[in-house]
Amino acid sequence: MTTALYDVPGPRTRQRHRLYGIAGTAVILALIAWIVYLLFATGQFVAAKWTPFTYVGIQELLLRGLGNTLKAFAFAAVLSVALGAVLATGRLSEHRLARWLCTLLVEFFRAMPVLVMIFFIYVALKAEPLPALVAGLTLYNGSVLAEVFRTGVNSVDRGQREAAYALGMRKTQVMTHVLVPQAVRAMLPAIISQLVVALKDTSLGFLITYEEFLHAGKLIASNLDYDLPFIPVVMIISPIYIGMCMLLSWLANWVAKRQKRNPKVEAAEVAPPEPGTLLPGGQQPPV
Length: 287
Hints:
The protein has helices spanning 11-41, 47-50, 56-91, 96-111, 114-124, 129-154, 158-166, 171-201, 213-222, 230-261. By secondary structure, it is mainly alpha-helical. The longest helix has 36 residues, at 56-91.
């Protein structure tokens, strides 16, 4: 039995794939067990290494760092989306100068390392840590999102654009009412993925003394008086970062499902033609 895309695997192939899956799962479980064994062997789960996290001062420091991380991410996310929309509009413009200028900016900021931009704004322009971090994240992620927006708009079928122009719509109306609403569905996973990158890159703020979540963890670990103090701190910080990234992915899936249920984007039923329908010019259709 075959399909248009691939051959349906037979019994031997399914059995071989099942064995591959079992072997892969065993390797992953063995790796996890080995890591847990190393953590126990080095005494990472003793009470003395976890007692400091019950102190109110350390908890407040972590919460303050988490709040600063979320604040930097919120500013960077909003500004990146806005900058990406502006640059994508310029790249889609019919004016050659605007198109070339926006293309130059997008390619330059995409190629420039984020850390270099953050350091340049912080050292050369003498900006405060938060504006320097937000500006660096905005320039990089905004340029990447510009390409996402441009590709999403161009992915819409060309007939949609031509039909809208045939109805007498202006270019702005075609973009806002026809192309962008259809392109959002295709762009949403890439947008959320880039926002996850922006969230993780906020950790670069500790290099310019911005008191974000990782900076708070480093400060705590540097003041603990036992061996390998960074491991318990990492075990506290990492799940929170992972949880925030998973929350963004869940939000993207929720928005996508809401769009599918939105009656404004559902197909409208059209009544079938009746025999008495008049053709243009008042003539009766042939029977």
